Amino acid sequence: MSALLEISGLCVSHARGTQRFLALEQVGFALEAGEVLAVVGESGSGKSTLLASIPRLFADPESRIEAGSIRLAGRELAGLPEDQLRALRGSSIGLVFQDAQAALNPVLRVGMQVTEGLSAHAADALALLARVGLPEPARAAAAYPHQLSGGMRQRALLALALARRPKLLLADEPTSALDPVLGREILALLCGAAEREGMGLVLVTHEIGLALRHAQRVAVMYAGRIVEIASAAELARQPRHPYSAALLAADPARTRRGERFAAIPGSAPAAGEHRSGCAFAPRCARARERCTRERPLLESGCACFFPLEVRP
Amino acid sequence: MAELRRVIGSWRERPGLWAALALVCALHALGAAAPLVANDAPLWMGTPAGWRWPALEQLEGGERFVLLLAPWILAAPLWAASRWRARIALGWPALALLVALLWQLLAGPHVFIPAGEWKRELGGAPALFAPIPFGQSETNPSEPWRPPTWLASSKIDEQGRYEQRAVPSSGGLELPASRVEVRAGEPARNAPLRHALGTDAQGRDLFARVVWGARNSLTVGLASALVALVLGTLLGGLAGWRGGRADVLVSRAIELVLCFPLLFAVLLVMSVGGGGSAAVWTIALVLGLSGWTGVARLLRAELLRLREAEFVLAARGLGFSELRIVIRHALPNALAPLIVATSFFAGTAMLVESAISYLGAGLVEPESSLGGLVRGGTEHAWMVIFPGLVLALAVVAWNLLGEELRDWNDPRLRGGGA
What we know:
heterodimer; A: 312 residues; alpha/beta; six-stranded mixed β-sheet; 12 helices; 10 strands; B: 418 residues; mainly alpha; MetI-like fold; elongated
């Protein structure tokens, strides 16, 4: 029995002018049905690109998959023609966007958007809206997006993604437009739905605290690569990559009152910046000469020559 | 009744929109029903041989269809607020077409009888006349340049002389006064509503000419706006959504068309040929063919913006086809400038048509348009004021409707709704 989603050796390039650069390099992981995998990293680490490459919906139409394979329930998506891939979008792959205000069509009523394109027997807007915990689904269905509150909009967006019961749900920072309490509620709803319906969920976030709380496994990305992938419990207890450790240390929730945040010195490499060796080496306190020369590969869940054995 | 109450309720919500819609529809219904509003042929007459319907018998095939649409146009504000609009929108024009075809088959080709002749042939038979019992080309030789008959200065004695003063001078060209002939069905010689808007040089009733002229002007406005809307939407949509080579081609085409001054383009076509009885449609087509650029440019710009919108990406994420995304998700968000541009163009087209008619290259007599009436009426104030007022009213009504529709289309400006 193969996994629900298997990605291996995925390379994606973006275009800038006439030049191309790799935004994702050799990314690979597997996701089981009913599992929640969180992808964390800074802005520009490639986590959104990773998510967009699965249904091949890049923000820039010039972006393309250079190499690697994406298998959804055993079916290869990387080379699939556009029309066959389109049939899978929505029905097999659901998407939850970051900003519900922008992702909902402002001139269509919510109920209409939720049921659009569904067969008549599945098109029960009220049931779909009630499923995502919207109070007064009838009122929400008759409303335009701008008439709902931020939390209600996000729930409506979730209802849209869940309406066709996809096997795989991709959520790109679904809570960063919401306040923390609401965000936690929405995430709990999302993960609950994934678990209940046996969907695989890939959750992209830049908040490692949220990732650890809601996901079973966490992949940490840096500069277009996965630097560490581990179960949430393991990562929280004992991060092995120095970058994961630094991210954890910088989590405000883990910082004691009165202490300063542990900031990571330096800044992430700019997109397309050519690097030899480990991309994190310039910012890494543990970097040695080998790190700037050779590139560490992901081995047993960690891409580092000198992994941490215990939390510093 | 409950439905009627609902309709009235939605009118109360947006009185501006409904007022503008009602005004536009009323004007267009008046134009469409012109044969029943102003006609020298009686609507009905009872001859010994049986009943006849001269006003209807005179209509050609297309005019019959337009006439049948008139009540629908008048009822459009009612329809727009009703719940059964889809059914009525398709059903009524289809029915009108069917009836017009049957009518064509049963009644045969139209009978042409010179203006005014019906009234003479009536010979005392009972008849029912239109509210304005004058045709657009029916002359009244004894009443040239007669002021509106509700004015005291318009009173005429038995011999056809003005009681108060001589008729305003027109350079000594006027004929000697003669007895006013009051034909069957016409108001009495000095009845206030005999010529409510006065007459022109040939004694043609100005009210009848304004009604028939408005019919032509409004047709030009509406038809050219529709041509511009359809063409502009197709080409602008292609350029904005596809981008790339299609965008370059359409953009250059827009620039090319914009190089031709609208007025001269129409004058050129009219002078090359295209006048005659189909002149209204020629003008409308030429105006539409040069007016689509405004719509296309606006739509292109909107779609370039919407193409990148997140809800369009979200719609792709739900696996919708490109066509569906364009029509259902992108276009409704680009409607605001489209509506405004189209309705403004309907007003502009009417004005351009007036300019063409004013220059004398428009419709052929006795056909007229509001602009043509203004041009022909430079001798006397009433001949300019009334057609001018109707023209202004029509242009303002279209512009108002455009603005109100734009506000109504945007749920954020609409208020309520939930």
